[in-house]
Amino acid sequence: MSREPPIDTSKAHPARVYDYLLGGKDNFPADREAAEQVLAAVPTARHMARANRAFLQRAVRFLAGKAGIRQFLDIGTGLPAQGNVHEVAQQVTSDARVLYVDNDPIVHVHANALLACDNSAAILADLREPDAILSHPEVRQVIDFDQPVALLLVAILHFIRDEEDPAGIIARFRDAMTPGSYLAISHATGDFDLIAASSAARAYDKAAAPMVLRNHAEVERLFDGFSLVDPGLVQVSHWRPDRGQAAGHQEVWAYGGVGRKITHPTPQPAPRAAWVVPGGPAPPPQAATAPGGDRARDSAHALSGARIARRPARPGHGPQSPGAGPSRVPTP
Questions:
Q1: Quick check: helix, strand or coil at residue 256?
Q2: Domain 14-268+295-329: which topology?
Q3: Which of 88, 95, 278, 297 is the most exposed place for a label (fewest CB within 10 A)?
Q4: What distance in Å separates the CA atoms of residue 306 and residue 198, rounded to the nearest whole number?
């Protein structure tokens, strides 16, 4: 019989920090210390956490309702709170099934006690090991990958470093999902105030996973192979808000979006070689770039654009990335 890993309460865990920001009580001194550092840098962090939670609930209602999804794979579950995925989905359709995944043993204990029911289950696993999740017997009991499924990666991908290949992790799940499945993502960003957001992110440097801020273009690329539904990738508070729920442009520093799986991922553009003369010398080789090697460049761009981002924008529109991103499909 496999043994549960030991619970280390001396190191902050993102799920427990999030619980503290939401007003929960299932956290420890290390979690509270990290959360207070976040609040010192960004006093509105509690509001941002609530906005992210509300985005999750609206996305699930959309997926269970208009999109017709009946099974959900929620990775990075976090500690149970009001409006959990199976509760929201089953309010729309009673036959919704949910598989919860988290790598924190404390979360797993609570999830087994409070979230597992006839149509849901919880496992202890890590997003960084997609094959272990996809082949897990309990996952296979709840989720039928021959039928459309919604993959929920809400407030978790910013804890995956570039060298851990978040796009490759998503691609592994995408390839296991049938066309017509959906992906929901929310992700922290420094696009609106890079200095303050970076200061808040440093609170996680000693936690179980550091926080990686990504800009609009970087988050949008995570939807490769998925067509974003309206309104696209926007601040989470502007994604199909309920009346009176949308926050101001400056208040929520996280992007959110939902995409529908298309048959094939977006093809990568061919390298430009128009200057090459037939029969002439070959172009010089490109220098290899290590994963995450463009972080400094992107941060510099984000910093120079932070002043622009502070100007009022039209509701629902964050800074847009140049060039083509995932395709957009009409609202189902």
A1: strand
A2: Rossmann fold (3.40.50)
A3: 278
A4: 12
